[in-house]
Design a protein that fits this description.
about 240 residues; alpha+beta; Beta-Lactamase; four-stranded antiparallel sheet; 4 strands; about 15% strand; globular
Length: about 240
């Protein structure tokens, strides 16, 4: 037997008005040629969804890996083009994050901040505004240096910082012959004359006379947690 539950008149009126307004809006949109079902689906998809810590870290690792790959490829392509036009000491200036348009686009797509940090970590010139990020970057660079000195395999890393950021890092290794043109060994990789010009112009010190596979630094890619959640909620 069905029970009849009393429903206050005022509440019935409010529901009726809400439904009526919704129907009128749908009717107006339909008359204007809009796909109301698609609009409703989009609104539903844009509702904030719960994102777990594990999902955030997985996304930071995936997005960071993609940005780092684009950045490395962009850097190598730009340096190759520069070497075809300029002497080595001039072309070396193109080994700069500020000259990586594709990497910049990839970073913006994920709301990330991209930095490339060399072994001579200089917080005054490259550190982010947040000192906690700068501290963590220095610690991770030391960890990569330790792993390299002890022949431990390099790997990517994701760190959460103050429940505000996720920091992705990836080691930069001396692999590409183009990079060895500047950072490699004098003799096998670059002429003594080029070696002298590079060290005089860029003060490369510890970044010269490196062997294949040696550590040069790391990619640092920072994501803001709240911006990641927004993106992940919309994507889901």
């Amino acid at each position: 037997m069905l029970l009849s539950v009393p429903f206050p008149r005022a509440a019935r009126r409010l529901v009726f008005l809400a439904v009526s307004a919704g129907c009128l809006a749908c009717g107006n949109l339909k008359e204007k040629g809009y796909d109301t079902r698609a609009i409703a689906d989009e609104i539903q998809n844009r509702k904030i969804k719960r994102v777990t810590s594990a999902q955030l870290e997985a996304a930071a690792n995936e997005w960071g890996s993609q940005v780092a790959r684009v950045a490395q490829r962009d850097l190598e392509d730009g340096l190759s083009a520069a070497l075809a036009r300029y002497p080595l000491e001039q072309a070396a200036a193109y080994c700069d994050v500020a000259r990586l348009p594709r990497a910049d686009s990839a970073s913006r797509a994920y709301g990330a901040v991209l930095r490339r940090i060399g072994l001579r970590h200089r917080p005054d010139s490259i550190a982010p505004v947040d000192p906690a990020l700068a501290t963590m970057e220095g610690q991770l660079l030391d960890a990569y240096r330790y792993n390299a000195e002890n022949k431990l395999p390099p790997s990517t890393n994701v760190q959460r910082i103050a429940d505000k950021y996720l920091l992705f890092t990836s080691p930069v290794l001396l692999e590409n012959p183009l990079c060895r043109r500047c950072h490699g060994e004098a003799g096998p990789d670059l002429s003594p004359a080029d070696y002298q010009k590079l060290t005089a112009q860029y003060n490369l010190d510890s970044l010269t006379n490196r062997k294949k596979g040696n550590l040069l630094g790391m990619w640092s890619i920072t994501f803001e947690k709240k911006e990641m959640i927004k993106r992940m909620a919309v994507d889901n």
